[in-house]
Amino acid sequence: MSKKTHGKTKKTRQRGVRRLADGRWRIRVYATDTRTGKQKETQKTLPATLSHAEVLAEVARLKEEQALGGGAPPAERTSLSDCAVRWLEDAAARTKRSTSELYLDVLERRVLPVIGDLYVDSLERRDIERWVRWAERQKRRDGKRYGRETLKGWWRILVQFIRDVCADHGVADPIVRIKPPRGRAGRTRDMRTLNADELGRVLAEVERAAPQRYAEVYVLAHTGMRPGELFALEWRDVDEERGKIVIERAVRRGTVDTPKTEDPREVALTQGMRDVLRAHRRKLIADQHPGLSRGLVFPSTRGGHRGPESLHKPLKRAGVAADVEVRVGPQVLRRTFNTLMMEAGVDRIVLRSQMGHCSEEMTERYSGVPVESKRAAVAGLEARTTGGRDDDPNRD
To answer: Does the predicted model carry a pTM greater than 0.85?
Structure first.
């Protein structure tokens, strides 16, 4: 050994091997990981009783273990991060913009930071299992772990991405028989919905405190629409003669796209909604609202599309004023509509046709549900929340 000292250690002739002041050995090993192509470093302290030869043997063992075989990675290998670029480009070409943006967000924040450095041909079950354990440990800003549905969403995108990439590269599927991450149990449905009386009180508070938003809240509460669908409505979608509203588009972040389920659908237009919408339209005309030229049913103050977030404050305030325990928002109204209709015994196929929230197979099953069935069901809900109105779509 050399006599040169460095702090509390002494260097040796072997690179990465030092002798501590108390006689123990400190070793540092560098090697190339053949699964990622990156340099890895490992430090380890060994007992003073080991000989120099035994220390060198441990160094060699660590190099082999860390390099996962010790060989340099082949020049033509592709990492998952590299594959993600092409995969996202393909997704953008075949899916809605909102969907491709979701894919990008999940991959960038939830997948690639954990396993993105791995080469596709070195991907193993243990890597997916490691990601599952990582996902289960993640927490929201409030310190709570993510819910089951959130983790399921991440898992679905991970599975689709990994299987597509492995198929493209002729690599065995590493996800077989791996269970998805388990998030914390979410709140029960009862804690996130209103009863008919509470919904009626919220509607009354909106009409009193924010009358300019009453029509959109009323329609949202009695159709089960998603807010993005509501704010993409145009007057040509409102068919008073046939008593229906046609949903063909949705707006998200200012961009108009197809609805979440891709296919257009019809929802019931009852007499109550017809009266509310007529009064709303008269007000737009009287004010010469800038949104009239675009034909939007619920335009913003500047005449463009509103965003779903614009309803959060008026609904929250109405919920507080109505003395309901639930924090009211657009999704609460949608879940409430669904729950109240189920409680009223509405046929599930009719309800799914109205909500547009189902599988592809179920879409085919309910495609022929007549709007009259939907209108009768919604009219029953209106009677419970507003006292009811004559439901003759042809009444002036």
So the answer is: no
